[in-house]
Amino acid sequence: MREIEVFIDTEEIAEFFFHELAKRGFVPSEEEVDELADITFDYLLKKCIIDEQEEEE
Fold this sequence. Notes:
The protein has a domain at 10-46. It is 54% helix and 0% strand. The protein is built from two helices and no strands. 9% of the residues are buried.
C-alpha cells in the first residue's frame, strides 16, 4: 500500500460543516461547528486514518 501525505485543517472542516448544515436548514453557531470539526479530527485520529503532527512556525 502506498502512503500519501494529507493535510487536515480543522478550520476548513468547520467551514465545510457550517455551509453543509446551512444548506440543510440548520443555523449552527461558530462554537458548534468548531466542536464538530474537533470531533471529526479526533475520529480520524482514533481510526488511524491520520497521524497528528505539530505545526511548524
